[in-house]
Amino acid sequence: MSLSKSLSRFGWRRPGAASVALLGLPMVWFAALYLAAIGALLITSFWTVDDLSGDLIPGFSLTNFQQLFSVPVYTHIALRTIGIAAAVTITDIILAWPVAYAMIRLAGPRLRAAMMAAVMVPLWSSYLARVYAWRLILSHDGLLNWTLMEIGLPRLHIGYSNWAMWIVFSYLWLPFMILPVAASVERIPPSLLEASADLGERGFATFRRVVLPMALPGMVAGAIFTFSLTLGDYVTPMLVGGRGSDFIGNVVYSNVGVTNNIPFAAAYAVLPLGVMAVFLLIARRLGAFDAL
Amino acid sequence: MRSETLIWAVVAAIFAFLFIPILVIVLYAFSAAPIPAWPIAGFALHWFADTWADQAVRQALVLSLKVAAVATIAAMILGTLASMAVARMQSAAKEVVSFIAVLPIALPGILTGMALAAYFAFWGINLSYWTIVAGHATFCVVIVYNNVVARLRRMPRSLTEASADLGADAFRTFRLIQLPMMASAIGAGALLAFALSFDEVIVTTFTAGAQNTLPLWIFGAIRLGQQLPEVNVVVFAIILFTAIPVLLAQKLIGESGKVAR
What we know:
Chain B: Belongs to the binding-protein-dependent transport system permease family. CysTW subfamily. Chain B: Its main location: membrane. Chain B: It is found in: Cell membrane. Chain B: Keywords: Cell membrane, Membrane, Transmembrane, Transmembrane helix, Transport. The structure holds two protein chains of two kinds. Chain A is an all-alpha fold. Chain A has one domain (about 70-290): MetI-like (MetI-like fold, Orthogonal Bundle). Chain A is built from 14 helices and two strands. In chain A, helix 4 (about 70-105) packs antiparallel against helix 11 (about 215-230) and helix 9 runs antiparallel to helix 10 (about 205-215). Chain A starts with a helix and ends in a 7-residue tail after the last helix. By secondary structure, chain B is an all-alpha fold.
């Protein structure tokens, strides 16, 4: 009997063994690189750096975490990051609804396909290009201020501010919200909406009491992306945020690139890990993983 | 009827919001002015030639293509294997594995970047071409995995069973039945993974050392406010270049049009 035959026979009798064989290579890769890297992050967050030589000092020290919680700037930056991530998520939920609803319930098949493509293209087109576009639009002599002047309004100074970050992040991640919301609206059987109408509910009441709860997993699935992507960014704050617009990522970035304090950077990066762990646990409860 | 018109008006405004920045990029690429300002005073094509002649841009482009190619190949192999394993699993194990598998894209980019930086520092590994590839492959694998897993969910198990009943071993079934049915999903995942790798900047900064990928070159130039006309051209080219694989991938995935990221 050939080797391939006996191997596949073994796999047929023991499906578990076949799964392990298939999963072996990806699992080793994933554990050896990604999970081990997260582990290294956690370990080095307790290390310190020699002030004079700049060498890493292995060990167990809470210095980094003490510094994070005692220096007001770091708490402030963490709150700003989480606050803007939450604001962006809410904004994207509000903007995604009309698009998702029109796409699934109002548009015909051809228009729906075109709208879907129109959501996909910005989702996948260059992140840097789109941030840069907003830097051009919001700058002092950019498109926004020119438009305001043309229609007789005063110039705005929202370039390089927290407002700019809020607009740009909401813009960047909107497609990530539209797609799962649309998918979950698509899954609601029309008969439920008819039943609600038969029972005397008006349009908005049906939306609030039938559509919204049933689309909740889709919204949470989208929120995982809008929240996490905002939480982990430092490029957008550097390009469109102002001097006082640092995110958690910017502190991590400058501690690795400029001061070369990897343990401190690692400790600060543990924070978004903790925030996302809580977020993902709640998301799982709400059934978001079936809607991904 | 009136509320429907209102919804369409809102939707049109949101699509304008999505596309005006992309339009702005297209227009600025042809601007003649050395410093970008609105309204665009004059148009010129010579920045395209200047950008193409810039050695730094070319080197960055070549590096980005090399990284994306290798990361995509790794992602195709690992992502397909993982998705086939998950498709065979029982519900409890399946849930755990599929939860862990999406972590590289569900967790913030700064975390992946910083974790890899700490990991390489931990082992004393110098940053190089291969550390960039390793970083990109972590999230590229997930893209391929997501697309193939979605396809396998719709693929009836009876087909592989029929193949086994007719005497084909597992490898032959894979070659003749499973691979052809997964091929377009693997292809779509690969195209999207390539596009994502080609554009990645958040993780790359932490794994690149002294070398510049194209996004790193752009990021540096924008921050320093240098060579902005060249940035305009490069950014326009990237938009054009990434739109092609994305639209192709959508075709491959079919009319349902759902691309998993």
